[in-house]
Design a protein that fits this description.
23% of the residues lie in helices and 21% in strands. By secondary structure, it is α+β, with helices and mostly antiparallel strands.
Length: 240
């Protein structure tokens, strides 16, 4: 199971995100063709020199969590193809999801089985506290029920959206540190906002990674809604 790469419209169910997490994608967003000297489907002319091709080729994407940037960064700096692991054996995350949905008036869909090279169960849901705003949640477990990935999304025009994200950071897996995670989020959001505002092309911006108790957590901001949208993602990041 890999971290999701692409992000469809946030009005779509989180199930679409979960499906992408199982297809070999990474935590960055798609940037295919960026910096490329030739578009897909075109034929490079015979006189194009290897030196010219090298000069216009983008640098390789990092592939390890150890290479995660230490400041908020655009997609090309986020590790590509990083696999997730089980967060904690025997922990499903379902109880936390149910309480979060009840507290924030989110409607959960039915659990669905994703069939791929790495089958999993996925469940997600969403709510619309005001017109044009959205809060959504989703989790992915192994077929035996162990949690591998948990995510929350919030449009910036949703009432109390920052409080919602802090609640999501309180994921109660064994060994978790909810207060520390909430403190990290509170300090990280202004850094992500600043980096996003400085991007000339509004590509998604992802925070540095919080490593804690065998998990990785990041905050991302992107232009997936007119008001801007945040995603908080917690995933299994154990070494083995």
């Amino acid at each position: 199971m890999h971290l999701p790469t692409h992000r469809p419209r946030y009005a779509a169910a989180v199930l679409a995100v979960a499906a992408l997490a199982l297809t070999g994608c990474s935590a960055g967003h798609a940037d295919a063709g960026a910096g490329s000297s030739a578009s897909p489907g075109t034929t490079r002319t015979a006189d194009a020199s290897p030196r010219a091709a090298t000069a216009t080729s983008p640098p390789p994407r990092p592939t390890s969590l150890d290479d995660w940037p230490t400041s908020a960064a655009p997609p090309q700096k986020i590790p590509l193809g990083t696999k997730t692991t089980v967060i904690a054996r025997g922990y499903t995350g379902q109880g936390f999801l149910d309480r979060l949905a009840a507290d924030w008036h989110l409607t959960l869909g039915k659990r669905k089985k994703l069939t791929s090279s790495d089958p999993a169960w996925v469940v997600g849901g969403e709510g619309h506290p005001t017109k044009g705003s959205e809060l959504s949640v989703g989790l992915i477990t192994t077929l035996s029920g162990d949690l591998r990935s948990f995510s929350c999304q919030a449009t910036a025009n949703a009432p109390r959206y920052e409080e919602f994200l802090r609640a999501c950071a309180g994921l109660d897996y064994p060994g978790s540190a909810p207060k520390a995670a909430a403190t990290w989020l509170t300090g990280m959001k202004p850094r992500v906002d600043k980096a996003f505002a400085e991007e000339k092309v509004k590509v998604p911006v992802t925070s540095p990674l919080l490593r804690s108790g065998g998990t990785g957590t990041y905050l991302r901001k992107g232009s997936y809604s007119p008001a801007g949208t945040y995603e908080l993602h917690v995933f299994g990041a154990a070494d083995k």
